[in-house]
Write a structure and sequence with these properties.
Elements lengths: L1 H9 L11 H8 L3 H14 L2 E4 L3 E4 L2 E2 L9 E2 L18 E2 L12 H14 L14 H15 L8 E4 L2 H12 L2 E5 L4 H9 L3 E5 L1 E2 L2 E2 L8 E4 L13 H14 L2 E5 L23 E6 L11 E4 L2 H11 L8 H12 L2 H27 L6 E3 L7 E4 L5 H10 L2 E2 L1 E2 L15 E4 L6 H18 L1
Parallel strand pairs: 5-17, 7-8, 7-11, 11-12, 12-13
Antiparallel strand pairs: 1-2, 3-4, 6-14, 9-10, 13-14, 15-16, 16-19, 18-19
Length: 448
C-alpha cells in the first residue's frame, strides 16, 4: 500500500488512472488475491482511490502536495503539475527489447530453493571460494546445458560471472586483438569491447544469420540461436563454416546464447559449442529467463582458456553472490527452472501471436510485417523505407517506448539497412500488454 500511496502522491500515477483488476495485480505480484483486494479497499477508504461498478478502480482526483512552485489542483485533464510537464507524460507503455516482465519472477519457487540451498550449504561456502564459482552451480549448469542445448562440457570448464557483459569484458582482456561482430547487435556490447581495446569489424546478416564468410580477426561474436535483433538463426552450413574457420585460423567463436531457450515453433536449436568445444566459448545468463536484476551468468570455455579467464577474473568472487549461485543450483536441479521456462515460453508465444495478429488485422500497410523466427523476447516489425524515424518519434509522443532497428546497426556497416522496429513484447505487465499493442497499431496507422 505504501508503494501505491507514494506513486499517487508523487504523480507517477495520475488522477483518473485506471488500476489493474485486483486478480490481475495479484497474479503479477505473486501474492494472494485477498491481499490486493484488502489493500484496494483500504486506499479507497483513505481517499487515494475510487471504485465504481463498471468503471473499475481508479486514482482519485485530489489536491497535489505543496511544492516550491506552490499548490496546484491536479486532475486528469491538467496539462502541467508542480515542477514539471504534464502528469502522465513520458513513457506509459514500455516495448523496449531485452527485459522480461519483472512480475513474472518466480518468487515462491525461488524462495523455496534458497531455503533448501542454505539449509545444506557447507560452512566453507560463505568464505573465500573458487573464482570459477560454486561447484554446485557449475555441476547443475553442466547437466542442464548438455540436456537442453546439447553442450559438451564439464564443471571444470564453466566459469560463473555476473552476465554476458561481464563475460565479454573478461574475454576482451584475455583474447584481445580485433573481433568480427554481427552488423546488428547491442551497441552496449560494442562500447564495452572498445573500452577494453578490442576493435570490432561488422559482418553482414541476412535470414540465415551472420555471413560467416566475411569473418576476420582474432574472434567472432555471434548470436546463433536467434540473431539479435534481426531474428534469424545461424543456418547449418554457416555453423559448420564458422567452426571450420576457427579450426583453420586458431580463432575463437564467442557464442552469445541470447534468449536461446525461447523458441516457439520447434524445440530450441542446439548450441554451436557442441560442434567444437575447443574453439567455441558459450556465454549465457538468466537475465532473459528469470530477470535482469539477478546478476548471474556463465562461460563454457575451451580447456586452454580456463586458467587465463580465471586469472583475469581475480582470486576473489566479486560479482555473483554465493547465495544466489547456491539458489540457482537448486532451482535448476529441482526442475523449477525447467517449469518456469516452459511457463514463460507459453506466455511469450501468446504475446507474440497477439502482436502478429493485431498488425495483420489492423495495420494493413504494404511493407509492414513481422520478420524473423518465432522466438525470443522481441520481434522485428519491418517498415517501409524512410519511415523508421517518424514512427519512433510519434510513438514517443504517444508515451510508447520502442526502438528503431537502426539503433542496433554497427556504425561501420556497409550499405543502407532496412527500416524497422524492435518490439519487446515481454516487457509490459500482462494487464497492460493489449493496450500497448493497440497504441503501437494506432501509431503505425497514423505514421504510415
Amino acid at each position: 500500500m505504501r508503494a501505491l500511496r507514494e506513486a499517487v502522491s508523487s504523480g507517477r500515477l495520475a488522477p483518473g488512472t485506471r488500476l489493474p483488476p485486483y486478480r490481475s495485480l495479484a497474479a503479477d505480484l505473486g501474492i494472494a488475491r485477498n491481499t490486493v483486494a484488502d489493500a484496494y479497499a483500504e486506499l479507497v477508504a483513505e481517499g487515494w482511490l475510487t471504485a465504481r461498478q463498471g468503471s473499475g478502480t481508479r486514482v482519485a482526483e485530489r489536491v497535489a502536495p505543496l511544492s516550491p512552485r506552490g499548490p496546484a489542483v491536479v486532475g486528469s485533464g491538467s496539462t502541467e503539475g508542480p515542477g514539471g510537464p504534464a502528469r502522465g507524460a513520458g513513457v506509459r507503455f514500455d516495448l523496449v527489447q531485452g527485459k522480461p516482465d519483472p512480475s513474472s519472477f518466480p518468487r515462491t519457487a525461488w524462495l523455496a530453493s534458497a531455503r533448501r540451498a542454505l539449509a545444506v550449504a557447507p560452512a566453507e561456502a560463505f568464505g573465500p571460494g573458487d573464482p570459477r564459482g560454486r561447484v554446485e552451480l557449475r555441476r547443475a549448469l553442466a547437466g542442464y546445458l548438455a540436456r537442453v542445448r546439447g553442450v559438451r562440457t564439464a564443471p571444470e570448464r564453466i566459469v560463473v560471472c555476473s552476465g554476458t557483459a561481464h563475460a565479454l569484458r573478461l574475454l576482451a582482456r584475455v583474447v584481445g586483438g580485433r573481433w568480427s561482430v554481427e552488423a546488428y547487435g547491442l551497441p552496449f556490447h560494442r562500447s564495452l569491447l572498445a573500452e577494453a581495446g578490442v576493435a570490432t569489424v561488422p559482418v553482414g546478416v541476412d535470414e540465415e544469420g551472420a555471413r560467416v564468410g566475411e569473418v576476420r580477426g582474432r574472434a567472432v561474436l555471434l548470436t546463433p540461436a536467434h540473431q539479435f535483433p534481426t531474428g534469424g538463426p545461424l543456418g547449418p552450413e554457416r555453423r559448420a563454416a564458422v567452426v571450420a574457420w576457427a579450426g583453420r585460423s586458431g580463432g575463437l567463436v564467442l557464442e552469445d546464447d541470447y534468449d536461446g531457450e525461447f523458441r516457439y515453433d520447434r524445440q530450441p536449436v542446439g548450441a554451436v559449442q557442441a560442434l567444437s568445444p575447443e574453439r567455441v566459448v558459450l556465454m549465457g545468463s538468466v537475465s532473459k529467463s528469470l530477470g535482469t536484476a539477478l546478476r548471474l551468468g556463465w562461460m563454457v570455455l575451451p580447456e586452454e582458456w580456463v586458467d587465463e579467464v580465471v586469472a583475469a577474473k581475480g582470486v576473489r568472487e566479486q560479482y555473483a553472490s554465493v547465495v544466489d549461485q547456491l539458489t540457482l543450483a537448486d532451482f535448476v536441479e529441482s526442475g523449477a527452472y525447467d517449469r518456469h521456462v516452459r511457463r514463460m515460453r507459453q506466455g511469450y508465444r501468446r504475446r507474440r501471436d497477439v502482436l502478429v495478429g493485431a498488425l495483420a488485422e489492423r495495420v494493413r500497410v504494404p511493407g509492414v510485417r513481422v520478420t524473423g523466427i518465432a522466438a525470443g523476447l522481441h520481434a522485428v516489425v519491418e517498415l517501409p523505407a524512410g519511415s523508421e524515424g517518424r514512427v519512433v518519434e510519434l510513438a514517443a509522443a504517444r508515451g510508447l517506448a520502442v526502438e528503431g532497428l537502426g539503433a542496433f546497426r554497427h556504425p561501420a556497416a556497409v550499405g543502407v539497412g532496412p527500416d524497422g522496429l524492435v518490439v519487446g513484447y515481454a516487457t509490459p505487465p500482462e494487464y497492460l500488454y493489449a493496450e500497448a499493442v493497440d497504441v503501437l497499431c494506432d501509431v503505425l496507422r497514423e505514421a504510415l
